[in-house]
Amino acid sequence: MTTPLTQSPRNAYALRHAKERLADTLEHRIRQAAEAGGGDAVVRAEIPIEPVEALPWLEQIRGQRRAYWAGRDGAFEMAGVGAAEAVRVDAGAPAAECFAHIASRIRAAGGRVRYYGGLRFDPEMTPAGPWDALGQGQFILPRFEIVNGPSGCALAANAVLGPKDDPRRVLAVALMELGALPLEVPEAASQHWGAPARLDTPDREAWSAMVRAGLDAMRREETTKIVLARQSRFQFGAPPDPAALLRRLVSRTQDSYHFCFDEPGGPAFIGASPERLYKRSERRLESEALAGTRPRGTTAAEDEALGQVLLASGKDLREHRYVADALERDFNALCDAVQADGGVQLLKLHRCQHLIWRVEGTLRDGISDAAIVERLHPTPAVCGCPRDRAAAWIRELEGFDRGWYAGPVGWLGHGGAEFAVAIRSGLVWGRDVLLYSGAGIVDGSQPDDEWLEIENKMTTFEGCLAPGHE
Question: Among this protein's residues, is 225 annotated catalytic?
């Protein structure tokens, strides 16, 4: 996206000067906030800088909380280090409390303040194993950010000034951390973690039994669609770096949301999702129904033929219709002036193509982002329908904790918000990388076909784990 900022004498001076300018701006903003009083305040300082490649910059930073987000359209990218504030969703507490706290912060701060994070797929399940550190959900206001957007590259610092905080101490801590922050981007070094061993949960035999159990539930009319997932554990000889792994993934995935939430000393959740949960710009709300999968062809003619087969597939169109119908009902409950873009179309990605249908509307007064998430998540594309029955079957059949996989991940900011559905994702945990992917089971599904569909979905991510890939 940008040209790396190297360590020439000119750029070394520019980097030192950038830190000095940011420090001066932050000191001024903290002093203003302290003089204004009035309780908690989020203080943000931001200055333009020479272009910096965000992911290689993030890759060199170790032992600190790291966050990364890039929009699907390529217009916005953020790499964050540290946390001025981390807001967790407590066990048993509604996510709306977390969202309300963040909304109050954003209203007071305005500007380009954004909180980044996500929520579990199933809040009724207690986080288990490696997912425990990420909890029910959390959102981070990064201490420092490299932001690449339409207006260029910027370096930002955030601080939270509470009513009992000493502004001088808040500033001193932020300046100390700024002084230790690297801004140069060294030449990327190849990273090798060895050839991984793989273990699938469930294995192929158990998967077939799981799919048949879901189909039996449909024949008893207990549900009409269940989205069942698999966990594939890849174990390496040395711990992979999440930022380096994400950089590999970004190079192989276009038209996707890219994200990384890396806990210091804990797990990191990374992914490249093609699926939008929603985008809000003031009161304008956008979303889409995404379902059905075919691989891409090796020639233009083969690719076109595979797409036409998908568009004509009764099973895939039925699976997609469940998602689109639910989304249309949700938008009619949330919005006025609901508009769809026409019929079902093809979304062509690097290794897959999907059926997609887009919709937008004008939010009714008083509807919060928490209410939007609660209404839209989980979609029939990652859960099934009816939602409650499908979720119950997922808990009974899958045998592992989905964690944040297929949950909402994104950002909340002044005048807008955007969330992706965290599919095509994985958890980096020590020497393990846990990859997750699912398939929609409807009447007519065949266990072997659904197993192969998941294998195709995981091919891109799995390829990034291969020794020697850069």
Answer: yes
Per-residue pLDDT of the chain (470 residues; tens, 9 = 90+): 444 444 444 444 456 688 999 999 999 999 999 888 767 889 999 999 988 889 999 998 988 999 999 999 889 999 999 999 999 998 777 899 999 999 999 998 878 999 999 999 999 998 888 999 999 999 999 999 999 998 899 999 999 998 889 999 999 999 999 999 988 877 655 666 767 899 999 999 999 999 999 999 999 999 999 999 999 999 998 899 999 999 999 988 888 999 999 998 889 999 999 999 999 999 999 999 998 888 889 999 999 999 999 999 988 898 899 899 999 999 999 999 999 887 899 988 877 889 999 999 999 999 999 999 999 999 999 999 999 999 999 999 998 999 999 999 999 999 999 999 999 999 999 999 999 999 999 988 999 999 999 998 888 888 888 765 55
Write down the H helix ranges in 37-166. Answer: 54-59, 95-109
Q: Is the dihedral of CA 76, 78, 83, 89 positive or negative?
A: positive
Pair of tokens at residue 330: 């949700």
Q: Is 116 within a domain?
A: yes
**In terms of domains, do 205 and 169 share one?**
no
Concerning whether 275 is annotated as a catalytic residue, the answer is: yes
Is the domain of 371 the same as that of 263?
Answer: yes
Q: Which of 145, 275, 360, 418 is flagged as catalytic?
A: 275
pTM comes to 0.93
Question: Residue 469 domain-assigned?
Answer: no
Catalytic residue selected from 225, 279, 450, 462: 225
Query: How many C-beta atoms surround the C-beta of residue 252 within 10 A?
Result: 16
Q: What are 355's strand-pairing partners?
A: 291, 346
**Residue 61 near residue 81, CB atoms below 8 Å:** yes
Would 324 be classed as within a structural domain? yes
